[in-house]
């Protein structure tokens, strides 16, 4: 019985630690458009490559929400700097190939938009 209780405590502790680290990760709503340096009228783009990561913030250090594939629809609101080597903030227009829901907001590396 003691072994089961100890094992349960280890699992519970690990779950709490994982949940705590996820709660501390930057989110799209925390970053949102505040990281933008260049605003634009809303423009619709298609993803031009397969395997583009859709993230909670502008950079690889932010958590990936999912993956975008060629032809997925993205409404662009703003970006971090000039189009080259920038990150674009916007929302998904139609359910993506991987199941990201319409209206989900996040960031994608700008060179992957067409």
TrEMBL record:
Originating organism: Streptomyces malaysiensis subsp. samsunensis
Signal peptide positions on this chain: 1-25
UniProt-listed Gene3D superfamilies: SH3 Domains
Domain SH3b: from-to ranges: 50-114
Entry keywords, A to Z: Signal
InterPro entries: SH3-like_bac-type (IPR003646)
Name the record gives this protein: SH3 domain-containing protein
